[in-house]
Amino acid sequence: MSNQSSTSLSTQTTSSLLTLNVSPAKVVRGAGILNSVADEIAKLGTRPLVIAGDRTLSIFQENLQPIFQAENLDTTASYYGADCCEASLESLRKAAKEHKADIIIGIGGGKALDTAKLVGHQIQLPVVTIPTSAATCAAWTALSNVYSESGAFLYDVGLSRCPDLLILDYDLIQTAPQRTLVAGIGDAIAKWYEASVSSGHLQDTLIIAAVQQARVLRDILFQKSAAALQSPGSEVWREVVDATVLLAGVIGGLGGAQCRTVAAHAVHNGLTHICGHGSIHGEKVAYGILVQLRLEEMLQSSQLADAARQQLLKFYAEIGLPKTLADLGLGNITLTELQKASEISLAPNSDIHRLPFPVSLEQLMAAMVSTTAPQQLKVKNG
Q1: Which H or E run contains 167?
Q2: d(CA 191, CA 264)
Q3: 250 Cβ contact list (under 8 Å, min separation 6)
Q4: Do residues 203 and 240 make contact, with C-beta atoms less than 8 angstroms apart?
């Protein structure tokens, strides 16, 4: 082969290079393992900046700080604020610089972990995630969602890699309210309904694997969620925690953005712009699945979508996931608010456009108020 041909081949190979951030570099899991993980953290850095929420900071100071000190880790801790927002990110980057941090540790729920991951990405430091609930797969993924200071979703950021270390302590997860695990089930089960509609027809080997893993994840949650919620800390409970925190992350890692989110998460994003709801991430996503299936029924006359929606309604009733806007605390939503949420869900860069059919504003609004049959919510004018 001539030099010219060799160069051309090299250029072609480089230009078609595809990268995937499939998983954290290391996952440590077990019951009561926080007492023995400081040495794992010390392998990555000795001057951690711990990013957490108010409640989690007290947990850190009482339980982890002495353990870190015994491992000669010079640690400082910072509150991330109400959300993963621009002001918090700027403040935390400054805190990391002042401390001369060489590692970022995120402890808490999805927003704390997203904040820690994004700070680590921005200042190019190793990241450790320690989830305190099973509400999302944020501890696993190479993705952070950024919100306004009032909690409205703005955009997401693809990160250069997954966390360097994920520490999953079942005893710590068990201290979280059960509602967080229920929400995590709603967030995780969405993987099947979104990945199958956006990517089920694709032939890429890893996307096929991601879609099939999403189906397995759905089946695990259908079969084991009710029993897990009845017996916190049991083996079946741990299996469901693994499903929501770890397996859900695998699917996004293998399939990439194409398998990660479609209409259910787009509806979630729109709803965050409405004041007054008391719901958390996975609850809005679970409701969004019903909206997506309703769109498939309305616009594709899909009997399979109708059957899937009825199956989910029964499952939601069994474990306590929301089925309507009223269940999300939005029973008094106005027509103006509903239109605003729908417009944001349909923004040009929205994941809802991964659906294999177009959706109009009127169609989405209709689907959002008819997730159950008969319709259970009346929209006010205004």
Answers
A1: strand 165-169
A2: 9
A3: 22, 23, 140, 210, 213
A4: no
Encoded tokens for 338: 């509903």
Q: Which tokens hold the place of 144?
A: 């952070």
Residues 6 or more apart in contact with residue 7 via CB below 8 angstroms: none
Question: What is the side-by-side order of every strand in the sheet holding 76-79?
Answer: 27-30, 165-169, 127-131, 103-108, 48-52, 76-79
Distance CA 367, CA 295 (A): 6
Give residue-wise pLDDT tens across range 201-240: 888 999 999 999 999 999 999 999 999 999 999 999 999 9
Residue 220 and residue 88: Cα distance in Å, rounded? Answer: 37
Distance, in Å, from the CA atom of 32 to the CA atom of 30, rounded to the nearest integer, reads 6
pLDDT band at 13 (very low <50, low <70, confident <90, very high): very low
- Within a 10 A sphere around the Cβ of 58, how many other Cβ atoms? 11
- The residues, any chain, with a CB within 8 Å of residue 181's CB and separated by 6 or more, are 133, 134, 135, 173, 228, 229, 240, 241, 244
Residues 262 and 267: their CA atoms lie apart, in Å, by 9
pLDDT tens per residue across span 105-164? 999 999 999 999 999 999 999 999 999 999 999 999 999 999 999 899 999 999 999 999
CA distance 171 to 187: 22
Return the pLDDT at 57. Answer: 86
